[in-house]
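re: ur question from yesterday

yeah so i grabbed the chain u mentioned. its 498 aa long if i counted rite. heres the sequnce exactly as i have it in my notes:
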Amino acid sequence: MKKLLFGFLIGLLLIQNHPAGASAPQKGGNLIVCQPAEPPGLDPTANTAAAIDRVVYSNIYEGLVKVDRDGKYIPGLATMWDLSAEGKVYTFNLRKGVRFHNGESFNSQVAKWNIERAKGEGTVNPHPEYFRGIDKIETPDEQTLILTLKDVDALFITHMAEGDAVMLPMNGYETAKSNPVGTGPFKFTKWVPGDRVEMVRNDAYWNPHLPYLDKVTFKFIGDPSAQLAALKAGDIDVIGYIAAPESAMELSKDKRFKVYAGTTTGEVIMSTNNKAKPFDNKLVRQAMAHAIDRKMVIDLVMFGYGTSIGSHWSPSTPYYKDLTGKFPYNPDKAKHLLAEAGYADGFEATIKLPAIYSYSKRAGIVIADLLKDVGIKLNIEIVEWGQWIERIFKKKEYQLTMIGHVEAWDIGIYANPNYYFQYDSQEFRDAYAMALKAPNESEKAKWFGICQEIIAEDAVNGFLFSAPSLAVMKQRVVNWWENYPTIALDCTEVWLKN
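ran it thru and got these structure tokens back, copy pasting raw so excuse formatting
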């Protein structure tokens, strides 16, 4: 039945481009944006949850560098940057006259303090490795920041454009989790736990032409049916990403709304605890890879939206290597590998699925059916999001789970044996180190390709598909991002037609 619906969906979904309207953007208005996950806090420098960045990145907080809607790295709080010939010294020219929402000035000393805080011992930053390659920080004047790296880092500017690298004020940073203060186009005003986060226009924003909106409210509605009901009732203006893609078919037929079908950097994977038996056995993981029909998963879970992947890399990201043919769907081969691993009669395991994401629950059910065909019985346990973060992500109390990893260029997580996959490979760490030190584009492509090959061969996780971007909004919403090259629901340039 769902495969048939997929055919109808392709024919009916309206793939909209950004409105070309000749009229100039109109100022004013209040925008209400729905996203399914409420963030655990509002400080992206202290927590890796994507739900945080979707609310605050580029709206409240800014970094030296920004990612635009086309995936390009553009000036943020730095107007420009230069790289030395040997590839180790970055000189950033900072904007003049920038102030935080609390009135504090932003300058090179504040930038230095933020970076030192991110890389220091005891840092709360979820990715201190992004900053610990910095050997020296110099501030020759208030508008100049010079960062000297210990070695070439091919992803340094990429990381400087992520939520981990946004700038906080030196006075008031302690309350960033619940009372964020940034330099962005919107100022935080209220967080009603379990319901919404509100922000208003920053009239003192360094770009006097932006933002267009008076107010933005992020409304948290986890249930897909409730999201649709709120949109149709006019209670919200935008669903940032549709949790249930089958809803796109219905919404595309309603002339009140428009649906965007774009790309993302997200990889949906069946995360595997590589130290939990029997998944510490590579043959078992390879058997599961052969037992999973990715096309069926995409058709049944995402109504055909999404692109199969064979490693932890999105096709929309540079240096992507197509490894989907490495473990083709082959149940007989899967049974053979299980027997070779000592599990000829199969085994029983538990897959813990986060309740907040419907795609995770649906994918878990589909994969449980597929694995049953080769003798693996999966018991399904639904866990609340807070428990997922605490028990699975932090304490690693799981065998299998299902989640989307949405950070761009995040294959480096496989170099960390303490990450929740608990994958420990010196071969991968060496290859990743070479990729980061690559002096040119061809060497980057070579070593990032090798990184993809290593984790694909080790079948570290069940690599399923690259997630699509499905956003729906009222017709009057203009200039919403169609594609998501970074984790953001950036409202800076969004406006409302009267």
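noticed a couple things. DSSP finds 13 helices and 19 strands in the chain. also The first strand starts at residue 30 and ends at 35.
anyway ttyl
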